[in-house]
Amino acid sequence: MSAAARGRILLQLALVFAVMLSVKWIADRYDVIGAGSIAIWCAIIVATLLMKREGMIWPELGLRLPKGRGQWLRGIGWGLLAMFAVFLLMGLVLGPLFGALGLETPADASDRFRFFLGKPLVFIGFLVVVIWFGAALGEEMFMRGFVLNRIATFFGEGPVGWSLALVIHASIFGAMHAYQGLAGMIGTGAIGFVLGVFYLVGKRSLFPVVLAHGLINTVGLLGFYFTDGALT
What we know:
Blueprint: H1 3-29, H2 35-53, H3 68-101, H4 120-155, H5 159-175, H6 181-201, H7 206-226
Helix pairs in contact: 1-2, 1-4, 2-4, 3-6, 3-7, 4-5, 4-7, 5-6, 6-7
């Protein structure tokens, strides 16, 4: 790949992240619910325009539904496997490691979710709009679909290029959750890496990782809601 082509990829990545961070900053200033999801979708719109200029479409990056019962069953099974892999990683590896190192998520990290406690309809709406549409679909399209593929193209789509892309994109994903402290950034970075691996091994299909992402977040928020915020 030419230096000009690599430079164009870097500019694309810089632009979509600049849009995402700018929108997030503005939305946070006005305490907008789902600020992160809004920012992600603004970045996706910009990414879509950039992709269109290069003749790329989202289905090429994995945004497609399974076809036929066999593909549906494999996609759902792969998504459930990814979810369990994340839970095992967090429970058997990162949990004990954080405990040994004394790393904890900041006590106020979950305060942004307290507005729906005791409000079942608001909670369900938040799950559907922000968690499934915003975080699960939006973050997987943006991080696994766009960012991971662009970084891999930058380095060359061979084993080394994809390996570097997995590590770099997972690190970025972790940094995007800085409000959760060091433990949260490491944890979400590890989750991003696992989902990236499942995305690649699953022939770059976004459906399984969107499903896994949504289920992981849903399980966490259900625990938070039904313990009145005690389980974070």
